[in-house]
Design a protein that fits this description.
Oligomer: single chain
Order of helices and strands: HHEEEEEHEEEEHEHH
Number of strands: 10
Distance between the termini: 100 Å
Strand content: 25-35%
Strand order of the largest sheet: 3-4-5-9-8-7-6
Number of helices: 6
Largest sheet: 7 strands, antiparallel
Structural class: alpha+beta
Shape: globular
């Protein structure tokens, strides 16, 4: 019995001393989702690209990358993530087009990073455009999926980190000049004909 009490006391002290806190996110309110997730400093990552890295949350699946465009999937919805490494490197201002016909629009200024969310109705679906920290997610979803897409997108965009050294190398003119090309050393240009054919 003494061991059990001692074990419980030890667990309590460990939890108390580490300062673990749980933050409850109200997933029915877009503003609350964005404010809570983006305000946390998060250094997690589980996906690395050319000059950037980010965290893909549980339930979201990575599909493919083409240059700075990543395709992700979750619960029947595709997420198209674009990393604007060039604008990041040159610290260009993020511009957004405020659309009066939008279902939802918000400018974001959190943790010295800027962005916006624009949700528009398109053919009985909703186009979610979420830009934050030089990364951009777009997804066409049903109305009931808007909040889950915003939640997943917030986690992804809040963790995007850039590698200045890699981006600088990529912006160098020589990087694009020396792209890989397929080269076959033993190129067989002969006609492949039936082996049994003979010369007369």
């Amino acid at each position: 019995m003494k061991r059990f009490v001692s074990l419980l006391l030890t667990i309590f002290l460990i939890v108390f001393m580490t300062g673990c806190t749980a933050v409850r996110i109200n997933t029915t309110d877009i503003d609350n989702i964005v404010d809570v997730v983006l305000s946390k400093e998060n250094s997690l990552y589980n996906h690395v690209g050319k000059g950037y890295k980010y965290y893909i949350p549980r339930g979201v699946t990575y599909i493919d990358t083409v240059e700075f465009n990543d395709k992700l999937y979750s619960d029947g919805n595709y997420y198209y993530l674009y990393i604007d490494a060039i604008s990041y490197y040159y610290q260009k201002d993020i511009e957004s087009d405020v659309d009066d016909s939008s279902y939802y629009y918000r400018d974001i200024y959190i943790n010295d990073k800027v962005g916006y969310i624009n949700i528009k109705e398109v053919d009985n679906k909703y186009l979610v455009e979420f830009m934050y920290n030089y990364a951009y997610i777009e997804s066409l979803v049903d109305f009931e999926d808007i909040n889950s897409v915003i939640l997943n997108s917030s986690y992804i965009l809040s963790t995007v980190k850039f590698n200045n050294n890699v981006i600088k190398i990529m912006l160098n003119d020589d990087y694009f000049r020396y792209k890989e090309e397929k080269f076959e050393l033993f190129d067989n240009n002969e006609n492949e004909e039936n082996i049994l054919e003979y010369n007369e």
